[in-house]
Amino acid sequence: MDAVVETARAVVAADAAAARPPLRFLTCGSVDDGKSTLIGRLLYEQRLIFDDQLAALADDSRRFGTNGAEIDYALLLDGLEVEREQGITVDVAYRYFATPRRAFVVADTPGHEQYTRNMATGASNAELAVLLVDARKGLLAQTRRHAIIADLLGIRHVVLAVNKMDLVAYDRAAFDDIVAAFRRFCDGLGFEDVTCIPLSARFGDNVSRHSPRMAWYAGPTLLAHLENVDAGEARVAAPFRFPVQWVNRPDSEFRGFSGTIAAGSVRIGDEIVALPSGRLTRVASILGAEGETAVAEAGEAVTLTLADEIDVARGDMLAAARERPAVADQFAAHIVWMAEERLLPGRSYLMKINHATLPATITELKHRIDIETLAGLAAKTLALNEVGVVNLSLARPVPFDPYAVNRTTGAFILIDRHSNATVAAGMIDFPLRRAINIHQQNLTVTKAARSALKPHKPAVLWFTGLPGAGKSTIANLVEAALNARGAHTLLLDGDNLRHGLNRDLGFTEADRVENIRRVGEVAKLLTEAGLLVLCSFISPFRAERRMVRELLQPGEFIEIFVDTPLAQCIARDPKGLYRRALAGEIRNFTGVDQPYQPPENPELHLPAGRVEAAALAQQVVDELLRRKIL
């Protein structure tokens, strides 16, 4: 019977709250500040926990709880076994609930630094952040980091929930000190309002009822503030934006474009533009969940058909013809780095933006943000959970809005091209117009015409291996053999280029990435001249070797792995570099304190530790003959 009554209450509350748009908010902050406990307590006080759930919660509290015989409300949201055993939140837990005044969607996010990426996921769709602070500890590094991420992800309403006031005897001075420190910190952020509430999630003080133990606090309870805050986004009033997720063509008679409207509204007959092509057309029909409709608004998933047969693909955008988004292949952005492996400017990543996936390169790391002072610090790389401001270059122009204008069309992620892991979340600041007046020049003499004058096809022979593996020795022998055959060649050697083109680069991972990026561009230019280009570089990272391959035409890049065991390279040590590196005199030396990633599927694998260099060089020439490059 009690369960029936509770169900009826929940239904009545949901119906009463349906008139207002639901508030999407998240709880965040440092580990063990009481985020899960707060939401569990809130649900309990609103009688939104059924009797059977409460009985199971009491049983779990005895097994996993941290409050002795009392109910541990955190366990209501900590659903994973590892979370219950360790007493921490690992994943993002979403809950829907309603009071008589409003409906809510809450994301309970982990506080542990290792799971900052999960917090960013929860913040990406939230309108308000409840940032918890332990009254005993005050602001911590993770507290500040979560505040910065909430700001970057467009959250403009924040509740500073100073929790565990019971553990500081409900001391007003402790609360005031934390509030003052947080308001000073927020001076550099873009929050529209910050509401500070002292509470004890464990005992329910100021959660949904005012606490008599903190009579000095005259502000709203947490629930009252959540019920009344006006945090809605004016997405419907914004210009129309429709990223195309799928080209819907079940047969030859129908061609529509499916997706979710990111902003604005659209009606049948509206003039729209397809981007990045810039072709104008009109909306012929709108198909929604209930069939054909005359109008659709932001948040609705629809299929649009167009009056004209124009080329539109997944990742393109349909937009208001008179209020267009930016279209560019370069822009500035804030990013949150989410990978154990550091960011390396110059490396090629995959960007996913508005359903489009394309190669992208961070051309410049402008600065890293200090989470203590919000100052910009000079940096060459970003580590896990660090936030930075960067410039990016894309393989082609894409349509977008600045993130401050549209949180959907201005967001992107970066993906590692080798592991397919998400390495960064990004928010676009503005397009870069530095190359807006530069166009590709059409040349009368083409690559094919230059190649036709030579007795071979253009190609890049990329020799890679450990220092001292014999790359340069073999490359020299190959070039001599090719020269004897009348081939037009040029040998690019790592040491030689560091005396000129790359003399400004060191040997950090970031500098090595930039070194190979420059070499790849030079090699590409030399193939345009029809040459056979021999490149002898350690090139320790697979990502950069892949980047050079993708600069060239299919079949033009021949990866040659000069495979000499490390022990043999150390014993050989022709330049005495291993000896100095092992003694600590040289840092960032590949094979000693910097990794080498051997090729996985090279075109040629030369066992240089067991076969003479002249024989290996002949194998390279034979391979060129087999491929009919010579």
Keywords:
630 residues, alpha/beta, Rossmann fold, Elongation Factor Tu (Ef-tu), domain 3, 4 domains, eight-stranded antiparallel sheet, six-stranded mixed sheet, 16 helices, 28 strands, flat
Structural overview:
Helices cover 27% and strands 28% of the residues. It has 630 residues and is an alpha/beta fold. The chain has four domains: 2-228, Rossmann fold (3-Layer(aba) Sandwich); 241-320, Translation factors (Elongation Factor Tu (Ef-tu), domain 3); 326-431, Beta Barrel (Elongation Factor Tu (Ef-tu), domain 3); 447-626, Rossmann fold. The termini are far apart. The model is unreliable at 1-9 and 78-90 (pLDDT under 50).
In short:
The strands form 5 sheets. Strands 7, 8, 9, 11, 12, 13, 15 and 16 form an 8-stranded antiparallel sheet that branches. The protein has a 6-stranded mixed sheet with strand order 2-3-1-4-5-6, sandwiched between helices. Strands 17-21-19-18-22-23 form a 6-stranded antiparallel barrel. The protein contains 16 helices and 28 strands. It has 630 residues and is α/β, with parallel strands linked by helices.
